[in-house]
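SAMPLE LOG
Freezer: B-3
Tube label: C17
Construct: single chain, 171 aa
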Amino acid sequence: MYTPGGVDTTTSPSQRNGASQTKNHLLVGQGTNTPLLTSTTRQAVNPHTCNLCGKSFPDSTHLRRHAGVHTKLKNYLCDCCTKQFKYESSLKIHKQVAHPDKETEDSMAKHVCEVCGRRSACRKAKETHMRVHTNERVYICHVCGQSFSQSSSYKRHVRIVHTEVKKTTLV
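STRUCTURE (predicted):
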């Protein structure tokens, strides 16, 4: 199957080039070029193949995790700051480095909103949350001037409102 960009997404690159899915192995004697065992073939051991790039994986879990490299979505959000990550593992590493006190129950108890009781993972997250109650709006849209208390709301606004404006003016 060919996509609008002309890329065949139903076969792997090796299949598109006419290569076989079997692997040939040649065991050569030490110090010589004499084959000790020839023409031993076996089927590829990674049956789960990405339709976009042809990379193979041992199971569907690895294939699903790999699929993230083909998208710009960053679904893993840090609950202490505004950073977003494509992979859960990247978020975990970020938290360990940037917010080392976050993981303990004691730190959760330390950061409680006095207004609504919401528990935050770290001081920065509590400070950001407090803007909900104070109506402090520190993020201002450079296109239309609308203001936001959370950077995630501002980013969503720019992505939805102003990229849609660009799309409709092109049509």
